Amino acid sequence: MSIQNVAIIGGTGTLGAPVLKALQASEFNVFVINRLGSKSVYPRTQVITVPDDLNVDEVAQALREKSIDALIIAIAGGLVESQRKLIDAAFNGGVKRVMPADFGSCDSADEKTNEVLPLMKGKKGVRDYLLSLQEKERDGGKLTWTSLITGHFFDYGLTTELLKFDVKGRKAYILDGGNIKFSNSTLAFIGKAVIKILEKPAETANKVLYVHSIHVTQLELLESLEKATGDKFERIEQNSEEELKVVRPKMLEGDHDAEEEVVAVWGVVASDWKEREGFANTLLGLQEDDLDETVRKAVAELQ
């Protein structure tokens, strides 16, 4: 299998923008899928315009007309119905590889994670749907998929308190003593990982792959942040179980901020990919980033 023509949907989002940038710098022929009613603009980029409701037949026809080999779905992971429509369109349109919106802090392939976070159940449901299609015959060969699980978005997370640090306020919310290793990936690194997957279609077909560019504890990260800022942070100890007891009920009632807090906590205490089956840094030829250098860059952007 060879991949030449790649389409991405969600190309202006937090993740989609850096993935699109990586695609544009690659050897692939890149297209952006844009809904008819979207105000997003993509200068000097090939655009495939599709109906706002993602009508499967029309999207499939557009994908087939452009001979799209791979579809990257970079919309919000909770948009399960939209993802299923895009997958059906990819199947009907002869696409060879789909990467669903499985990127992110927590492991949707983990049973305990799905219990803690309903959002992950949705992601698992999308992947199960891909599994149901992968053996079905169609013109142009079978549809394959790759789920890429990245851990917390590291640089984005430092600016949004996703990693449990309020950098501007110089506060560190330390979970369970702060010595738990957890996996993180910068947005640029995730873009690089997507390219590597597309460059190795046979080795990455029908797999859940885990990557990270920063493998760190909160205490190690705190030391790096204090070094980068020249300031001591106020250290606030938290127990993850107690924190989840407070915020999970709010999340289940539809509180978006509470859901973000559950993701933040669980992405620290239950997201160490280093020994996980499917850890793919070596397979993809990816190197971890230098912690202090990455933190310095992120802090500089906050000034």
From TrEMBL:
Matches recorded under Pfam families: NmrA (PF05368)
Keywords linked to the UniProt accession: NADP, Oxidoreductase
Descriptive protein name: NmrA-like domain-containing protein
InterPro entries, per the entry: NAD(P)-bd_dom_sf, NmrA-like, NmrA/Isoflavone_reductase-like, PCBER-like
CDD domains for this protein: PCBER_SDR_a
Record-linked SUPFAM superfamilies: NAD(P)-binding Rossmann-fold domains
Gene3D superfamilies: NAD(P)-binding Rossmann-like Domain, UDP-galactose 4-epimerase, domain 1
GO molecular function terms noted in the UniProt entry: oxidoreductase activity
Alphabetical list of PANTHER family matching this protein: NMRA-LIKE DOMAIN-CONTAINING PROTEIN-RELATED, NMRA-LIKE FAMILY PROTEIN
The organism's place on the tree of life at top rank: Eukaryota
Provenance organism: Paraphoma chrysanthemicola
Span of domain NmrA-like: 4-245
